[in-house]
Specification:
This protein is α/β, with parallel strands linked by helices and 256 residues long. It has 9 helices and 8 strands. The chain is 42% helix and 12% strand. It is globular.
Amino acid sequence: MPAGGEHEAFLTSDYNAEMIGHVENHPAVRDRAIFVGSPADIVPLSFGRDLPTMRDWIPKHFDFAGYVVGEHPHTFGSRAELRHRLGYGTDERICIVAVGGSGVGAHLIKRILQSWPLVQARLPELRMIVVAGPRIDPRSLNAPAGVEVRAFVPDLDRHLAACDLALVQGGLTTCMELAAAGTPFLYFPLKNHFEQNFHVAHRLDRYGAGIRMEFATSTPDTIADAMVTALKRPAQFKAVEADGAERAARMLSDLI
């Protein structure tokens, strides 16, 4: 990341050069290398100074399976049926806030909670459910009245497919579950997380999914405005392939 300066850039390039050398000098070590995604998902960057570009090098050494979703939302049934099964009313709009299993998302949740009164004043029918995860004490969040905080939600992917809006960090799995479901969402990449800032953001741009937010510059007002915008904007995501796991399985079965 740029914040690491020249020293971090040198160390990263040196490590990448070592890994590239392993692959090119010992091709027989690997029986199969599979890229979870498509060639268009490769970020148009190089591996470092004097190293090849990712888009030139990766297709020469990897096969592409397309994206692999744990369970594609198209298997969940109609959205109306899914909402009914999960207990959501037809007259309410559901917003889910989820930050994964680590404690790093506590600051993001608290910032989002500060935006809640602003959003509620404009969208009184909105219901916010915060999934704190196992490492954030729900009591530490001091959630305002009207916000539900849960430590754990089973089958969260189904709730993300059923809700009207989600606010999440920039992790690939959660963001792509939302993209596959066609659910509008805001995502906040961690400041110094290379994958979330570059690889995930590039892939989401390709699918036309999500609204990228920067935590450092996102005030409660800007978050509230973005939430209202996302709810009013029709989601027009590119369809996420449903056969990635099957393609990967066929590639692996060739080895048996």
